[in-house]
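Please decode residue identities from the backbone states below.
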């Protein structure tokens, strides 16, 4: 199967027609207590356009059957749709071929699959490097692997602006570094990491590079070849797609060397009484009945994003984040966390003297959905010296009016708590 040609947004492309985009999301028409929904929690899960909802309904209504399990027409149709979805994901990521893409439940499962598969390569005294910005899903699996294998678990720290500098990476890289695992974008601060530059340094010492793309794929154009990484994982529900589905890109040569993560149906070639011969990637990593409908829904979401233009989405979200930072900084006692060199559509802040959960509750009463908590980034929260933050995160459907509404509601919360 060949990969469809990628479509790139031309430089200077017109900005998003946000109202037209919003019309494709039925849920955005909801009201709470008479107030319109202001949804600013897209980093947790993005809403779904009609294209995704219709793709799911169409699959279940017309082609529902087990993938690669039958010779009847429905099974053939379902299998073709599933493999077409794989090709769509590969094109979206800039992969060399669809066989480099395995469907997983999400970023978390993808990273755990890699950690389990790379275990035999890690020995006592080896080193695994992560960053202070990592989500628990890209922190705990490697922390656990290091403990189990007697390796050293290293953490590249952030500077005062919330960036992981190349000097800090160079400080930890060495001849015993086996894996460098890092986020493409911080889910808590919105920091965009210099993945390509870090990957180049990691290659010089022979380390593998694993990228948590949970926040990268929704917010930035992605090209795994340009990034120079060995693996890239992302989640469907953050990229306007269904829950329970994600994708793991593994460089072809590495994928062929990794053992299965789970065993069972779908990932075998032959099963003998004493031994089993496993399938080649990606089927080797897809034990059990595949989430075919969800894969088709994910492909619809990625097609929708591609048509809209990932670069246009990124520019739109970045502009909204910059406007929110400017507005929040004008409110007394409000502290914005991080001044990264490049910020995606995520802003975390505090209101001095008010717990983040209390701020989030006041905002909810105003019809504004944000995330309040540690954002599955407790090592980062400790570094910042706070238990939790309020996080606003943007998507293609976010508007300048919503930024204004959030700023006004934060001012109200500050006033309510004196």
């Amino acid at each position: 199967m060949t990969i469809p040609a990628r479509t790139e947004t031309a430089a200077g492309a017109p900005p998003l027609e946000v109202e037209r985009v919003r019309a494709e999301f039925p849920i955005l028409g909801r009201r709470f207590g008479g107030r319109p929904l202001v949804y600013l929690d897209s980093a947790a899960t993005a809403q779904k356009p009609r294209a995704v909802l219709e793709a799911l309904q169409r699959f279940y209504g017309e082609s529902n059957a087990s993938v690669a399990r039958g010779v009847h027409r429905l099974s053939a149709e379902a299998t073709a749709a599933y493999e077409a979805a794989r090709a769509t994901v590969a094109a979206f990521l800039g992969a060399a071929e669809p066989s480099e893409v395995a469907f997983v439940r999400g970023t978390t499962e993808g990273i755990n699959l890699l950690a389990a598969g790379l275990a035999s390569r890690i020995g006592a005294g080896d080193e695994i490097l992560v960053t202070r910005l990592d989500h628990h899903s890209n922190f705990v699996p490697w922390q656990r692997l290091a403990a189990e294998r007697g390796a050293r678990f290293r953490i590249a720290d952030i500077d005062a602006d919330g960036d992981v500098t190349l000097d800090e990476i160079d400080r930890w890289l060495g001849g015993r570094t086996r894996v460098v695992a890092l986020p493409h974008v911080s889910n808590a601060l919105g920091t965009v990491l210099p993945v390509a530059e870090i990957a180049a340094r990691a290659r010089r010492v022979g380390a593998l590079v694993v990228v948590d793309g949970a926040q990268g794929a929704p917010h930035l154009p992605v090209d795994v070849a340009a990034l120079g990484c060995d693996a890239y994982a992302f989640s469907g529900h953050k990229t306007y797609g269904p829950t329970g589905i994600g994708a793991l890109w593994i460089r072809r040569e590495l994928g062929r060397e990794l053992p299965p993560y789970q065993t069972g149906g779908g990932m075998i070639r032959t099963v003998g009484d004493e031994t089993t011969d496993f399938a080649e990637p990606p089927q080797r990593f897809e034990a059990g009945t595949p989430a075919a409908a969800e894969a088709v829904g994910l492909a619809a979401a990625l097609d929708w994003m591609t048509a809209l233009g990932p670069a246009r989405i990124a520019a739109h979200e970045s502009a909204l984040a910059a406007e929110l930072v400017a507005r929040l900084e004008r409110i007394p006692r409000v502290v914005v966390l991080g001044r990264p060199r490049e910020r995606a559509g995520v802003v975390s802040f505090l209101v001095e003297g008010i717990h983040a959960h209390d701020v989030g509750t006041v905002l909810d009463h105003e019809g504004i959905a944000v995330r309040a908590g540690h954002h599955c980034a407790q090592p980062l929260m400790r570094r910042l010296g706070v238990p939790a933050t309020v996080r606003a995160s943007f998507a293609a459907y976010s508007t300048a009016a919503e930024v204004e509404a959030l700023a006004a509601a934060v001012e109200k919360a500050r006033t309510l708590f004196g």
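Observation: The chain is about 40% helix and 15% strand.
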